[in-house]
Amino acid sequence: MITREQFNQHCATLKGSTHVIQWGGADVWKIGGKIFAIAPHVGEGEFQTISIKVNDFVYEILTQKDGIVPAPYLARAKWIQIQSPDAMTDEDLIQHVTDAYEIITTKLTKTLRHELGL
């Protein structure tokens, strides 16, 4: 599983993304004020879960895999939480984070997308 630092580095490369620390130290990544990925702080040396927005189809598929569950408090909006470092490859995780960013980006107004240079 990618590290929290690698997760943050990737999210930072996504155009117009912003980073805030919320909810007791969670790394929360947003585009246009809307969240697309979260890495909560669970303690030093412990596995860090990652929650991301996915589309309906991907949600149905991924929540059937071991180590991936509907994200607490966000499942109704089709968010998943990756709870195991073996649940998916680093490459797949990076792609899903990028996809989450793109899903949220498409929900922004045309004006906001233009202001963000998207």
Which percent band covers the strand fraction?
15-25%
Q: Which secondary-structure class do the elements indicate?
A: alpha+beta
Uncertain regions spanning at least 5 consecutive residues: none
Order of helices and strands: HEEEEHEEHH
Can you tell me the number of structural domains?
1
How many beta-strand segments?
Answer: 6
Tell me the major beta sheet.
6 strands, antiparallel
Using the coordinates shown, work out and report the CATH topology: Aspartate Aminotransferase, domain 1
Spatial extent as radius of gyration: 14 Å
CATH C-level category: Alpha Beta
Shape: globular
Strand order of the largest sheet: 1-2-3-4-6-5
Distance between the termini: 29 Å
CATH architectural label: Alpha-Beta Complex
Helix fraction by DSSP (H/I, runs of at least 4): 25-40%
Counted by DSSP, the helix tally is 4
Mean pLDDT: 92
InterPro entries: YjbR, YjbR-like_sf, YjbR/MT2646/Rv2570-like
Protein name: MmcQ-like protein
